Amino acid sequence: MAWGHDAMNETVGPVGEGDRISELDMLRGAALLGVLLVNIVGFAAAGFMSTADQLAALPTAGIDRVTEMLVNWLLRDKANTMFATLFGLGFYLQIARNGDRPGFTRRFSRRLAWLLVFGIINVGFIWIWDILHLYALAGFVLLLVRNWSTRALVMVGFALAVVDVHWLEFIDHQLGVTLETWPAYSDAAVLERQAVGQAGDYWGLVVQFWRFNLADWYENWGIVAWGVYALGRFMLGAAIGRTGVLNNVAGLVPRLPRLALFTLLPGLSVGLAMALMFAGFWQPFGEESPLIAGLGRPGTALLQAAGYASLLVMAWHSGLGRRLLAGFVPVGQMALTNYLAQGLLYGFVLFGVGPGLALAGHIGATALVAVSLAFFGGQMAFSRWWLARFRYGPMEWLWRWLTYGGARPVLRRVAVAA
To answer: What is the C-alpha separation between 413 and 391, in angstroms, rounded?
Structure first.
């Protein structure tokens, strides 16, 4: 059974302005805010760009610990679950619109290949936790399984989505296995990265990025775990698209309160227990409590993400909610541009390259959240300004030009009157 229906097969190419679904753009923009907060707090946390002693010595240490726990409870794994699921859903829409047309597989594969290139550049030269290259690989797999039934997508997608890197960590710990040859999370490694960053040595940082990725991403099989994690969410996103709910989102709204209730209550309650264990506030299993908590986080993330999406769509279909959430829409329309720009913020705050502030080890989670909220406000304003003048975001235009070729120099919006 091929994906898609007649209404979706009228045109060939990427989703155009007239085909956009505002709820998806809004959700994508909201997810990007969560991704930003999780990434910057996590990257500056102990074991990555700070040591535990450095963070404990900050005057904001007490509130920072609570802030980090709240970010982990409310957003970690939940924001990227929404983002990955929406990415998979977006790929599904492209396949559904054009999957049966001659040359589509070649064009779609070229689109994924360029996304892979963007991701490799990002992970190697800007942001070591890039996810775009994994999204590209997951997209290739999604193309291969496009004839699967909706039930198969749900079953396999869910099975993959509840397994992530925390499972590998638990298994390695139980077996006493250490796969990496260099302790990437040790204080010595952190201080080495800090010293290079504070010196403003960009190419030295690039070497550190690749060294970190080799140890954590490849030797420790992190790329496999996170690849499975992303693919599971892509499949779930495709399954959502296959149900046809996007054909009548407004008709779905009356059923969303029940969905929000049955996902958020267990998700938030179990997720809180996991977050408390992970942060060390509650240790029912002794020293292994963080490892045990990691096993349940992917499942609770799915529940919380579904609940968040339900609440946001419900709010979107109310007058006040739409006004409050409208700023997320242009951010979601420029998701690739805004995601890549967020990586520049991490470097600016934590490293001393160029005008960088070199605050790694000297800034806590609370200040990072404040900085991120201000930055995201800027992204909302910029995205709105840009899309009032141009059809696509800068990176969205480049991605389309590289994928589909031809002369695409005119970015300015076509006036409605014309």
So the answer is: 5
- pLDDT band of residue 10 (cuts 50, 70, 90) is very low
Question: How far is residue 215's CA from residue 188's CA, in Å, rounded to a whole number?
Answer: 15
Bigger pLDDT: 412 vs 112: 112
Q: How confident is the model at residue 169 (pLDDT cuts 50, 70, 90)?
A: low
3-state secondary structure of 201: coil
CA nearest neighbour of 125 among 336, 365, 353: 353
The reply to whether 155 falls in a domain is yes
Cα gap 56→15, rounded to integer Å:
48
Q: Is 410 exposed, middle or buried (0-12, 13-18, 19+ CB in 10 A)?
A: exposed
| Length of the chain, in residues | 418
Give the confidence band of 3 by pLDDT, cuts at 50, 70, 90. very low
Residue 412 domain flag: no
Q: Determine what percent of the chain is predicted with pLDDT higher than 90.
A: 63
- Residue range 406-417: mean pLDDT, rounded: 48
Domain hosting residue 181, numbered range: 6-404
Rounded CA separation 247/370 (Å): 38
Domain contains 56: yes
Structure tokens at 396: 């969205």
Q: Is residue 1 scored above 60 in pLDDT?
A: no
How far is the C-alpha of 256 from the C-alpha of 311, rounded, in Å? 7
User: Which residue matches tokens 């290139």?
Assistant: 117
Tokens of 42: 């996590």
DSSP state, 216? I
Q: Provide the H-helix boundaries in 44-77.
A: 52-56, 61-74
Asked if residue 265 is part of any domain, the answer here is yes
For the chain, give the mean pLDDT.
Answer: 87
Please report, for residues 46, 202, 359, 360, the alpha-carbon distance to residue 356 in angstroms, rounded to integers and kept in the order given: 20, 11, 9, 11
Q: Tell me the backbone φ, ψ of residue 372, rounded to 5 degrees.
A: -65, -40
Residue found by looking up tokens 């589509």 in the block: 104
Please name which of 5, 14, 29, 44 lies closest in space to residue 107, comparing C-alpha atoms. Answer: 14
| Total number of domains constituting the chain | 1
Q: Are 84 and 234 in contact (CB under 8 A)?
A: yes
Q: pLDDT, tens digit, for every residue of 210-233?
A: 988 888 777 777 788 888 999 999
Q: Tell me which residue has tokens 């992917």.
A: 298
> Could you tell me how far CA 36 lies from the centroid of its own chain?
9
pTM here?
0.89
pLDDT at 183: 83
Helices (H) and strands (E) in the chain, counts: 19, 0
Q: What is the DSSP letter of 248?
A: G
